[in-house]
């Protein structure tokens, strides 16, 4: 397409350049002819007329002097002679060195005849003075008529030059008109060819290509897109068809993925139903654990304690030991069930989130754990969104563990700090206790996971599991800091309120 358009414009440009060159040469010729008409022949004709009048003035002055013998009557003659010299020079200059030869010849003849008339007629009369002879009429008529004829011939030559220049100017004007017509025809032909070329190679193929693209956009993704226009459009059609193939391939993948997503959604709905059923079972279990299991367990514990109080020391030592084992087991079972119930209630029995100042929560926790001793302090704490009872349980478990797992003969010290990290608060609870080994970092948050025997430290091993569930329920995360020199450092995050 580009080559064809360039070729068309190149041919048109060459033709128009040729026409422009011819037009320029014709315009120069026309200007030259107009110069001859306006700047030469016109002034030359006027000078010729004035030259004729100058000779008449000379003849009239000589004739008057011959009759009156008065020097005053020679003034027309003298003005005519001066005008003659000036006019002959002007005509010669207007004709120029490359001017018409006939005019130069005519000027030479006029000078010769004028000099002869003055020599044969005018000068003798003027030389004779007041007592001179009369004018020789025969010689005057012969010489002056010849001079008059020469001036008329000069005027005729000037007129002929004017006519030739006018005819040439008319011819150049006609040539310019013809050139303009030819240029207009060339432009019209080029424009028509350009429109035809655009229609055949661009407009129609683009319309057809657009029609095919609309059909593909309408859902006919298997229809192949082709073009019969210019090579550029053929290449564009190939690119569009490649895009169609890619879209069709990806659409097939999308449909397959959609089928998989629908199947996954179906499975998720099934899993959600199972989870809902499991939650109902868990709630039922919680109800049973809190009522049906607690009641017989309380009876067992009560009667065991009654036996321990009433028959302590009355039976043998082994019987007292067995009763103590039974009482301890019942109490531990009650604690396990209560802790399990507390773990299951996190996130299930909710009162809704509210603004909770952590300073108030820590004050409450310190008052609850005051009987355990130790130095518990904190820096400026933020206000977060959450459930205050759960956040109180969170800090109570973390600080309670710090106070429980103390080093012998070392007063426990617990420090709580908070700092903002982007869109969340990072809170750290650190103590100077016995610490946690690296290999147990992933086990401390597992439910009922104990790292020490019950004889060394009491508890069920569910405190950190409950803490992890509370933090995750509030949209945070919790972890054990390993890079500490002594003691235990546990960090967790809570979102910054919007």
Please characterize this protein's 3D structure.
Helix 1 runs antiparallel to helix 4 and helix 3 packs antiparallel against helix 4. The longest helix has 81 residues. By secondary structure, the protein is α+β, with helices and mostly antiparallel strands. A hairpin with a 2-residue loop joins strand 4 and strand 5. Among the domains are: 195 residues, Four Helix Bundle (Hemerythrin (Met), subunit A) (Up-down Bundle); 145 residues, Heat Shock Protein 90, CATH 3.30.565. The strands form two sheets. It has a five-stranded mixed beta sheet. Strands 1-3 form a two-stranded antiparallel sheet. The protein contains nine helices and seven strands, in the order H-H-H-H-H-H-E-H-E-E-H-E-E-H-E-E. Helices cover 69% and strands 8% of the residues.
Number of beta strands: 7
Radius of gyration: 65 Å
Largest sheet: 5 strands, mixed
Query: Mind telling me which CATH architecture of the domain at 2-196 this is?
Result: Up-down Bundle
Individual helix count:
9
CATH domain fold name of the domain at 2-196: Four Helix Bundle (Hemerythrin (Met), subunit A)
What structural class do helix, strand and pairing data support? Answer: alpha+beta
Give the secondary structure arrangement, pairings included:
Elements: H1 2-68, H2 75-95, H3 101-128, H4 137-217, H5 231-311, H6 317-345, E1 354-357, H7 358-368, E2 375-378, E3 383-386, H8 388-404, E4 413-421, E5 424-431, H9 463-473, E6 478-481, E7 489-495
Parallel strand pairs: 2-4
Antiparallel strand pairs: 1-3, 4-5, 5-7, 6-7
């Amino acid at each position: 397409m580009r080559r064809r358009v360039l070729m068309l414009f190149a041919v048109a440009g060459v033709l128009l350049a040729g026409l422009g060159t011819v037009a320029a040469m014709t315009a120069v010729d026309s200007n030259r002819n107009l110069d001859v008409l306006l700047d030469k022949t016109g002034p030359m004709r006027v000078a010729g007329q004035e030259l004729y009048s100058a000779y008449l003035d000379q003849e009239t002055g000589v004739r008057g002097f011959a009759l009156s013998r008065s020097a005053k009557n020679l003034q027309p003659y003298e003005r005519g002679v001066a005008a003659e010299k000036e006019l002959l020079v002007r005509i010669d200059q207007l004709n120029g060195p490359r001017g018409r030869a006939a005019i130069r010849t005519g000027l030479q003849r006029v000078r010769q005849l004028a000099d002869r008339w003055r020599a044969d007629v005018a000068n003798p009369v003027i030389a004779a003075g007041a007592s001179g002879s009369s004018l020789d009429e025969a010689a005057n008529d012969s010489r002056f008529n010849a001079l008059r004829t020469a001036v008329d011939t000069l005027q005729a030559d000037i007129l002929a030059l004017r006519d030739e220049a006018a005819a040439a100017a008319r011819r150049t004007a006609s040539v310019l008109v013809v050139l303009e017509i030819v240029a207009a025809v060339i432009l019209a032909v080029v424009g028509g060819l350009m429109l035809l070329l655009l229609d055949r190679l661009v407009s129609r193929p683009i319309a057809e290509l657009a029609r095919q693209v609309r059909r593909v956009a309408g859902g006919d993704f298997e229809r192949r897109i082709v073009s019969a226009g210019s090579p550029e459009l053929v290449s564009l059609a190939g690119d569009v068809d490649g895009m169609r193939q890619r879209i069709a391939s990806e659409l097939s993948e999308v449909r397959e993925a959609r089928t998989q997503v629908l199947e996954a959604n179906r499975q998720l709905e099934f899993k959600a139903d199972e989870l809902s059923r499991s939650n109902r079972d868990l709630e039922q279990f919680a109800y049973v654990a809190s009522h049906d299991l607690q009641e017989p367990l309380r009876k067992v514990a009560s009667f065991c304690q009654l036996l321990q109080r009433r028959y302590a020391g009355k039976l043998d030592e082994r019987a007292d030991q067995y009763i103590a084992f039974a009482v301890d087991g019942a109490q531990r079972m009650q604690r396990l069930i209560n802790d399990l119930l507390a773990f299951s209630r996190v996130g299930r029995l909710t009162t809704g989130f509210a603004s909770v100042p952590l300073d108030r929560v820590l004050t409450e926790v310190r008052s609850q754990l005051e009987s355990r001793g130790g130095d518990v302090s904190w820096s400026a704490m933020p206000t977060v969104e959450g459930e205050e009872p759960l956040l109180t349980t969170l800090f109570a478990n973390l600080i309670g563990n710090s106070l429980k797992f103390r080093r012998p003969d070392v007063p426990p010290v617990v420090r709580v700090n908070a700092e903002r990290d982007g869109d969340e608060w990072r809170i750290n609870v650190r103590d100077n206790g016995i610490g946690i080994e690296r290999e147990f970092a992933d086990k401390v948050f597992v439910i009922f996971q104990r790292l020490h025997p019950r004889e060394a430290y009491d508890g069920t091993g569910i405190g950190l599991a409950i803490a992890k569930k509370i933090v995750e329920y509030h949209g945070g995360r919790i972890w054990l800091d390993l890079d500490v020199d002594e003691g235990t450092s546990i960090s967790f995050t809570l979102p910054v309120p919007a």
